[in-house]
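Note to self: the last two entries modelled the partners one at a time, which told us nothing about the interface. This time every component goes in together.
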Amino acid sequence: MEIDPFIFRLSIFILSIFIGYYVVWSVTPSLHTPLMSVTNAISSVIIVGAIIAALAGSSENTFSTSSTFGFIAIVLAAVNIFGGFLVTQRMLQMYKKKSKKK
Amino acid sequence: MISANLSAVFYLISGILFILALRGLSSPDTSRQGNYFGIAGMIIAIVVTFLSVGNFSTSLVYVIVFLMIGGVIGAFIAFKIPMTAMPELVAGFHSLVGLAAVFVAIAAYLNPEAFSLGVIGKIKLASLIEMSIGAAVGAITFSGSIIAFLKLRGIMSGSPIIFSGQHLLNLILGIAIFVLVFYLCKSQSNSIFWALIAISFLVGVLLIIPIGGADMPVVISMLNSYSGWAAAGIGFTLENTALIITGALVGSSGAILSYIMCKAMNRSFISVILGGFGADSSLDKEKEKKDQKPVKSGNAEDAAFLMKNASSVIIVPGYGMAVAQAQHALREMVDKLKKNDIKVTYAIHPVAGRMPGHMNVLLAEANVPYDEVFELEDINNDFANSDVAFVIGANDVTNPIAKTDPKSPIFGMPVLDVEKCKSVLFVKRSLSPGYAGIDNELFYKDNTLMLFADAKKMTEDIVKNLD
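The predicted structure of the combined assembly is written out below.
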């Protein structure tokens, strides 16, 4: 009997939770705020779903209801991606200046 | 157009890069490199998606235009936002992830062919369950984060909003969500799908309104976690590895942060969710007692004198410092002290501020070297050997009552042993209690000198007096 591909995805999911558990515990408490902003940025990889939805519109009907939702989701996710990574970078930059001065 | 297998491999690579992004945060030195890994992972995921859809019609132009619009807005916010406003920024970003998850789920529901999930009215059962979970959790994240944002921003009062039957209502709505998912799977009716999303929005609001200002660090972490689970739900729908891995990472990250925050307040996660903290009626009783107790208060000159004659000073910052934007003045003061060969360190309680690590970022902004900043457990023994504790904008996290009075709502919460210092300087605007609504007996100790003023102004005055 063949294994349902869902089981494979579930395995990836569960193993990733374990990876997340160990990786996040090793994050130093002083970087917990950048941790939140960067997790914010990476969870916006949901933009791939938005892109698929947006590109599904035919050339006569670029803005079908479904693709319109996709387009809006692209804007939302893009705000998050750019905002999240840049603000993280800005914070981490501040941690750098000091270590150099030392 | 690239094959599904090849794109799956690339999605896996971007998932791994995201893991490395979080891994980098284990030390400030590797953190920037980690962030680049994250950016690389995101670029790979987006490019691969374009290639695998392979539709280069006018739609693509619009996609890029919308991507750029969002990008410009995001970049603008990222550069403009003051560091003190980080908690509300993060809450706001969570709401966007949540809403994006809802919209992707809606798009997938309305046009399942595009995602190869079957046809309208005959969506595969597993996909339908996954997308409804993604949509429901996304909707809760969205509306919950909006409320958190409004509370943090001060547009909405930080005090808990409680009404009778609240928990029962939440329970009923929670059950309703499951019932709706069940019937959605049976009938695939549009109205049920919309009802599911509407109820989830409502649940998000109801979940967050009873939670008080003091519990905000937990709320933000919790919503962080939710946004991850929402992404994972959508990841299962889209059969996308990058999204599943990321969702799991973010979900567990938020959960761990919530746990750390709860532990730092000695509160159970359940009691935070049930809310109502900070609205204790005991406040009035405390007030009567307080009026009778004498308090020593001083001015900037006294404080400067005390610190100049100390050999070691520990700074205890709290949310008040963030509100007053006093971090730069504080740094200036510390520089002056250091010139006089006084040893200065910073002690940070895990829940100081309104989100995990909030104080560390503010001190970093003011160019405080991160090796002078210590966590609670690393510095707590040093108070006994130090001359002056300078408490600026913190309150509940220094309250010795947490160690002595089992009746106190914060009993058992780990606190900074500030009272063990030879003398304590307490910068505060008034004697009002902190968020927990309880009086701080530290105010009335003999070795405590209260400095009644705005944190920034007082610090600046002390700087002047140090010359």
